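Problem 12. The chain below contains 90 residues. Write out its predicted structure in token notation.
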Amino acid sequence: MFEQLLTTDEVKQFKPAPRAYQMAVDALGLKREAIAFAAFAGWDASGAKWFGFPTVWVNRMNSTVEELNVTPDLICRDLTGLVAFANSRH
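Solution.
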């Protein structure tokens, strides 16, 4: 189903370390602004946003927003929000 799988094991850095997110930029050959990052944890959405990715937090558990001084571009409850976000960027 996926053309490419990325794992932080390859760079031996775990999120939210910038190198973990840079791996996607390097592997895909795209600028960070062109990569939409979908996160299922608030801290992961924050790390991706700090790195510079357009970010969607799929907040399925309706968790409270963590106070990390950064807000994802979109917070939604399910993948339909992610699809709408991706479609709006074309």
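Discussion. Residues 6 and 24 are 7 Å apart (CA to CA). Students who got a different answer should revisit the alignment rule from Section 12.3.
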